[in-house]
Each structure stands twice: as structure tokens, then as C-alpha cells.
Amino acid sequence: MTSLLDVGADTLVLNEKTYTLLKIAGVGGSSIVYKARPDGDSDYCMVKEFYPHDLAEGREADGTVRFLTGQTTAVQSRKSRAMRESEIAMRLRHTEANNDPWILLYEKPIQKNNTLYTIIATEKGEMLSERISDGYYADKDFTVLCDCILAILDALEPIHDKGYLHLDISPDNIHCSKLSIMRMIDYNSAYSPSDPSGEFFPSVKRGYSAPELKGISNAKSLRLNPDTDLFSVAAIFFTMLKGRPIEENDWAIPSRWFLNNEEGYLKGASKLLVDSTNAFLQKNLSRNPKLRLQSVAEMRAKIEELKRLRQRIELENSPKRPNVHFVCREKEISDIDEYLQRDSYVILEGIGGIGKTELAKKYAWENREKYDIVQFITYSGDLQTTVAYSMKFRNFDNAKIAQYESKYGNEAVEHIFCDKMSSLKQDYHGKRTLIVVDNYNTVADDHFAKFISGEYKVIFTSREKHNGSVIEITEMKSEDDLLMLFREYYSPYKLTGEQEPAVREIIRLVLGHTMTLMLIATVMLKSDKTSEEMLARFKKGLDPKLRTKIAVDKEEISAEDRENVVYGHIRSLFNLEDIAANENYAFIMTNMAIVPYTGLEKKIFYDWALSERYRSDEYDDEDYTDIDCLVDRRWIQEEIRENVRYVSLHPVISDVACRELMPDSVKCIDLVGNLIKECARLCLDKTYVEYIEGTKMLETAYGRISDETKLTANLLDFYADICFRLAKYNLALDGYTKSLSIRTKIYGELHEDIADLYNSVGLVYLEMDEYNNALRSFDKSLEICQFGFGETHHYVADVYNNIGSTYDQMGEYDSALKYFRKSLELKKDLYGANSVDVAKSLNNIATIYIQMDEQTNALEYFMKSSDIFVGILGENHRSVALLYNNIGTLINQLGNSEKALDYFLKALEIKENEYGKEHPDTSITYNSIGVLYTDIGEYDKALKYCETALDIRVKSYGKESSPVAISCSCIGTIYYRQKNYLKALDYYDKTLSIRLAIYNECHPEIGRAHYNLGVIYYELDEYSKAWQHYIEALRIYKISYPENHIKVKNIQKAISELKHIT
């Protein structure tokens, strides 16, 4: 290559204007681009010289280009292309759309020196290739690279919007201004199907051009889409990240170029970011255009997501002020400081209620000048989960957690833990950070070593014994210190000299346990008892059976014995006159023992537990006197959250209150009843979040109330019902089984409630796909009903129906039909031919006929059911809506979409009026309408309805549920019909993951999910993957269906067709 600068020219006169050539800005296959400055102008411009390297022989001394002899025709053809480039640039710029600043102004080419020169207006800056080679990005953060790609996409979007593809995107053809604006140049290869000339001149650049451009000369010979340009954008991103363009071998062995977080721009980055970036590059540098992102908008969204993942997360600062009455412990505070100076952690061990947490708070507070960040977290079973979900970081909110859960599924917690630990070690290296892990009540944790391996400091509090850096927090040894602590809690009263000896004896008696001492001081303060009276009553209240008579004057007492002594002391305080003898206090504490550890609003607790007891004909106002007295005595904790007062018990006091006062359904009848009512209210709309709140409300009562009464059984039933709806089937089974035991003792075997519970147990087993256990439970329920109440009892009809549903799930449709018919005939005898129950059975039989491909019979039974429902309930009842939905589905299958839509819209109107728009039942019809629109090819409408259904179902059932899987599958089908196979693949993948999580491995729905994935991989030309999914679908279908079933035949046909291709 011989440039103008090579022959000594530094100026160029074009149209009587002189341009000073500063340097070569870029070199292409047919051109040289110079950075230049027009005389008398401070702005820069670019001068593009036509110089085809394969046709140019050199230059004369005056700069005239010499072309090879005999290549006149080729040179003229290339010049025509150069002229065309300017026209395309002008066409892109001069439209109604606002292109500033993305499309540069190209002037018409000027003839001179036997060649062409094109002036391209620009401003200060340089080509992207210069920035990269000059090391501009070498010390920049990953987010700066993302910003560069986003700017390139901003420049590319208006080109695509006007129907053009650039097809020559590379660092040489991108101009960067000082304002970080990227501008495309070189439209020599640009192509538009609507271009009247139909010309296409592909330029292939190693490392940047998409593989499909190689070896083609006509755009019509290959389908070109925006993904061809997006390949080049991803290739630029690759170059910037790896320091080299992509090479041929990179496709064969992706692992050779995969990024990691040990070096380069992603050093120290989260695993999620590394995996996501590798996935982005692998996807968009794929040889298969179908696998790439298909639009600038999609790529922009992915780059923005990567950028967000790179945002620096910072541990939040959340120090806690210690109790103002916490005194002494200076020796332990000094020991903590000494341990943390030589090690990264210290464990404060000791029995409950001895002040470990307050000690950690006091150390952190007194040493707050040493630490920039202090955070307290509560151990929640294992360090991995605790760090992942309890440790708070800025820029790591629920939305980011959702990204992890979406990408990693059940392994999300592991990746969140790893990335948070990585951030701690990288971002806080050398910083002064203190983390307090409270209630680390475990002997060992698999992630302990990794957690303590950073530069930050950690304090653990624990009741368990450990090795290593441990400080045993025992009772306070110094009587003088304990006396000082006593005075703090006894304040504002002054301890007299006469009282002190008795107080000292109390101190010795309680083994220095700070919580016990706090309670004694408070009781004395609030009851006006003297220290002598308190000592006498305290001694008298000790219970020998509770091992509180251990010789306290001995030096050596085991930790277990010490804990029993301490718990015995706290229990003995309940026997003192002002607690045990006060019926109101005892009643309040008994009820508080079943309040959730997180507490209840003070007013709600009063209304639910105490209002009947304190009701007065004379006064309507609440009487909080006794609650406030217990708060003053520090038996009850009170705190204000968002201007609302909450009451709760310290876990130690809660345990003692439970053991001493033994709450049951009789003592706590009002509170238990109201907890159940509140759960019923919370779960009114039957959403996932509401059910979670319901379990929290009942959890403590469920675990502590065990007397065998009808109310206890109701509590167990309700808790089991909620767990059943949350798909926590083991908990549901436990609750139903306990209730069954209680009710059997109350009623005996032959009772409706017993039959009903066996039926509930059967339904749990049915959901767990344990069909044999389900059938055994239903048979037991049936046996009780038939033996105790005869063949015509209404429970018999219900159980027949559930047995039919079980056989339906097992794919044994003849047996299902048999039991549904039995249920139908019995319901006719019980309720008459025109009853709601009969209509429901008719509907169930219709659904079986659909499964058996007998649509005519199905429609007949649906219509019979519809006539009954409408006649009894009217046209606007929710049961009618359900039936309309089923009829619409069937009519749509029969090909009458217009009539089917009428039924769906009727159903939707009823459901929206009955439930509102965001209800699980409403989602059924939204989804059905979406399926209909899919069938008739109106995909935008289909997507709208199916996505609405999906949103409702995720809120109602959580992410892993059968309805959510159905919605994902429907959306996947929409994208499949639109030939957007990548999105279809994404949703079909989600469908399979969900169904694998909730069904056994041979469930027919899992077979269906495999079949759909096989279809998608077939369309993507990934035949080996298609084969794998087809074979798995066939295996499952052969287990689930007879050999001649249509689904088995269809999959066999698909496999046969695939054999011919491969």
C-alpha cells in the first residue's frame, strides 16, 4: 500500500479547498481513510481515498494513483461502488427520522489524482481501531467497554430502522468522538432488500464478519438479517475483552477463549457476570444465525444487563446500639479486640441469655472508629444461605437475586454466596469491616473456612462448643460487676446498704446469668419487694425436679447443668407471687408463648387474645395496663416499627413460658381461633405471598399446641391446607396425619371428619404423584363412608370422583371414566339430575372424553353440564365460567375459533367480575384465549394474553408450579409459530425444568416438554439434541400411553423423519 503520506504529500486540494492530512485513520479493502483538517477550520474531518489494494500498482510523485494494466473495467466497477457508498450515506442521513448524531455527513466524491476522494464531516476523535491499539481501554472498567458497545448499537439502530444492513462493521469503520459517540462509516457493503439497484458488494474481514458472508456475491443467495451485523458488534466486544479478534479455532473449542474472573476486565467479577458474558459471546458469535440475538434492542438489553451485573456491590453499614443498661464486660471486650487483631474471627460461646449478642453490639459500638462498616446478620441454618439472603449489599436487591434464580435455578444460593464472598474479599481488602453473625448455633458449617478467609473481621455468637478462636462467655465472675448491673436495672431506685447482702446472695444463686439478674431487678423494681423478700421467695420457688438445687457453691458445673440451673431460675420467677398468682399475667404470657417470634402488633394481640377477658360493659377502650406491666418487667419485649408498636418474647423467655405455662387450645382459645381467621383472611385471594404470610402466622402455634382437641385439629388442618397450596406436601401430610390421629381419638373411625381427612391425605399423595398411596387413602376414606354411612353417602360420591382423577393422572382413562360415572350416578340419586354436583361430574366426564379423542361425546357432556349450571346458578356464576372455558377449548379444537372466542370472552367477563383480573381462575381463561389466538395466527394478541396469565400464576403459585409450566409452554409455542426459535427454546426449557421439579420423571407432561424441545432443536438444525429429546419423550410416552396412542405415533414419526436427515 502506498499512501499520500508515503509520497510526502501532507496537503490535498479538493474543490479549491486545502486539507492538511494528519495521519492514516483506517485502511479498508478498497480505500484509505485519512484524518484531516480543512484550512481555516479548527474541526477535523476524514478524507476517504479510493485505493483498491488488489488493483492499484502505486503512485506518481504528485500522488496520482496508478492502476494495473488491463484492469480498467474492474477499476470502474469499484469506483461505481464508491459512488454508491456516498449515495447510501446520504439516503440514511436525509430522511424524516432524526439521525443526528449517528449518521455522518458524506459529500459527493471528488475526482482527482485518477481516483475519488470523499469528505466525511466529523468532529474531534479517532477511529475505534486507534483507541484499541493505543491502549485507551486497557485501564478501563468492564462497564466502559459495555458503554462502547451500547454506543455502537445506538449508531447501528437507525441504519436497521431504515431497512439497511451495514455488513462491514469493524473497529476500522467506527469513529469515536470525544463525547463517546460512535459513528459508522464505510457503507460500501451496505445492503437493503428494497434498494432499487439490488446491488450487493460484501466485504469480509477476518475476525469481524459473520461466517455467512463468506463466499457469497448476492444477498438474495442467503437470508441476511440484523443478526449478521450483530455478529460483528459481538466480535468487537470479543476483541476488546480478549485483546485479539476471534479466530477460526475459537468456534471449535470455546473453552480456549472463555473469560474468567482471575484476570482481564472481569478480574474479581461475580461468577454470574462471567457466565453471562461468556454466554453472550458464545450466542452472538455462533455460526448459526438463528441462535444469535435478532435485533439491536435485544442486544442492547443484554449489554445493559451485563453492565448492571458489574455494578460494584457494597456491604451496607448497619451498626446496632447496645442496651443502655449493658455494663461491665470490659475484660471480654478487650479479649475480643485482641483476638481480632491476630485472627479474622472470634466465636463468643455461652448459654442463652448470658449477653453474647449485647457484648458483640457493645464491642462494635465502642470500637466504631476502627471500622468503616459494621453489619449484623442472624444465622439461618447454614452460612451459605445466611450470606446469600441475609447479608445486605447495596446494588444487590431482589431484582438481582431474581436474575441468579432465573439463570441458576436451585443452585442460585451457591452462586450468590460465591459472588458476595468474592465482593467481600476484593472490595474490602484492607478495609475495616466487621460482620457479626448472631445465633451461630451449630457445631460445624461446611462454608465456615471460606467465610472467615477474608481481610474483614467476624464475630460469631453461639450456644455450641467450637475449636479455634473462641472466647467462652460465662456468668459474670465479679460480684461487684454483677451488683453494678443489678443497679442499672434497679434504677432509678437506689440499693441500700441493708439490701446489698441479700442481693449479693441472689447474684451467687443465679450463677451470674445476666438475663435472670435483669428479671429479678425488674421484679423488685416493679413490685416494691425488698431484697430479703425477693431472696426468700426466690429460694422457695426453686423446683428440685428441675435440677435447680445443684450445689451452686461448687466451682465446676457443666455447661448443661449450668443451663438447667439458669432455666430453672427463670422458671422459678414465674412462681413468684406477682406472676404466677396474677391470673391476668399468666394468661397474657401463655398466649404470648404462641405468638410468632417476629411478634404481633400490640393492638392486634390485645384484640385477638385479651379483648374477651378484659371486656367491660362500662368501658369500650382497650386496657393495656397488664401488658404494659409485663413490658416494664421485661418479660415482654416491645418495639416500634414504622410507628406501630409490636410485642414479642425473647426466645429464652418464650421457651420457658411454653414449658411452664403449657399453652394449649383451651387456654389460648381466642388467640388460636383468631390466628386461623386471620390466615383465612390473608389467604383470601389465594396468592403465593399470602400463603407464605399465613404459614408465618401459624408456625409457632402449630409447633407448640399439642393438646388433642377439636380446635387443635382445626389448627393442624388449616396449616396443612396452606402447606398443600404452597406445594409443601410433606408438611401438609404431617399436619393432616396429626389431625387424623386427634380426630380418631375424639370421634372414632366412623366419622365424616375421618373420612374427609383420609381424602385430604389422598389428595396430597396425588399431587406428589404417589398414585398408589393416593388410591390407598381414597380407598380407606371410601371404606369408612360405605361401612359407616352406606353406599349413598355424599362422601362416597366425592371419593369416587377423586379416584377417577387419580386414574386420569395415571393415563388410565377407562378406569377414570368408570369412577367418574359412579360418582355421577350417585350424585343423581343424592341431589337429583339437575344439581350443581351432577353438573360438575358431567364436566369431568367430558374432560376424559377429550383425553380419549372423543370430541363429540365431550361436547355433549359439556353442553349437559352447561344447561344445569346456567339453570341453577344463572349465567354469571363462576362455575358457569369454568364450563364456558372448557367448552371454548373443545370448540377451538374442533376448528370453530370464532364461536370458541365467544365462550372464552363470556367466561372472562364472569371471572373478572367475580374475582378481579389478577386471580388464578381468571388466568385460566387468559391462557385459553392466548392459545386460541395462537391457533389462528394472531401472535401479538396471543402473547399478550398468555403473558398476562403467566404473571398472575407466578404471583399466585410461585415459579415452580404446573400452571406456570403450562403458561411457559404456551408462550414457547407462540414464539415457535413466529419462527423465533431461540425464545421458544428459552420458554420450553423453563417448562421442562418446572415439570422435572414437580412431577416424577415418567410423567406424560415431562414427555410433552421433551417433545417440544426436540421440535425446536430440529428447527435449529441441532439434530443430535433433537434426537435426545425425541427419544426421551418416546420412552415416557410408552410408559404413560398404549402403543397405538396418537402421541406415541407422532413421536415415532418425528424420530423416523430425523433418521432420514441424519
UniProtKB/TrEMBL annotation:
<keyword id="KW-0677">Repeat</keyword>
<feature type="repeat" description="TPR">
    <location>
        <begin position="923"/>
        <end position="956"/>
    </location>
</feature>
<dbReference type="Pfam" id="PF00069">
    <property type="entry name" value="Pkinase"/>
</dbReference>
<dbReference type="InterPro" id="IPR011009">
    <property type="entry name" value="Kinase-like_dom_sf"/>
</dbReference>
<keyword id="KW-0802">TPR repeat</keyword>
<dbReference type="InterPro" id="IPR000719">
    <property type="entry name" value="Prot_kinase_dom"/>
</dbReference>
<feature type="repeat" description="TPR">
    <location>
        <begin position="881"/>
        <end position="914"/>
    </location>
</feature>
<dbReference type="InterPro" id="IPR027417">
    <property type="entry name" value="P-loop_NTPase"/>
</dbReference>
<dbReference type="GO" id="GO:0043531">
    <property type="term" value="F:ADP binding"/>
</dbReference>
<dbReference type="InterPro" id="IPR011990">
    <property type="entry name" value="TPR-like_helical_dom_sf"/>
</dbReference>
<dbReference type="InterPro" id="IPR019734">
    <property type="entry name" value="TPR_rpt"/>
</dbReference>
<feature type="repeat" description="TPR">
    <location>
        <begin position="1007"/>
        <end position="1040"/>
    </location>
</feature>
<feature type="domain" description="Protein kinase">
    <location>
        <begin position="19"/>
        <end position="306"/>
    </location>
</feature>
<dbReference type="Pfam" id="PF13374">
    <property type="entry name" value="TPR_10"/>
</dbReference>
<dbReference type="GO" id="GO:0005524">
    <property type="term" value="F:ATP binding"/>
</dbReference>
<protein>
    <recommendedName>
        <fullName>Protein kinase domain-containing protein</fullName>
    </recommendedName>
</protein>
<feature type="repeat" description="TPR">
    <location>
        <begin position="797"/>
        <end position="830"/>
    </location>
</feature>
<dbReference type="Pfam" id="PF13424">
    <property type="entry name" value="TPR_12"/>
</dbReference>
<feature type="repeat" description="TPR">
    <location>
        <begin position="755"/>
        <end position="788"/>
    </location>
</feature>
<dbReference type="GO" id="GO:0004672">
    <property type="term" value="F:protein kinase activity"/>
</dbReference>
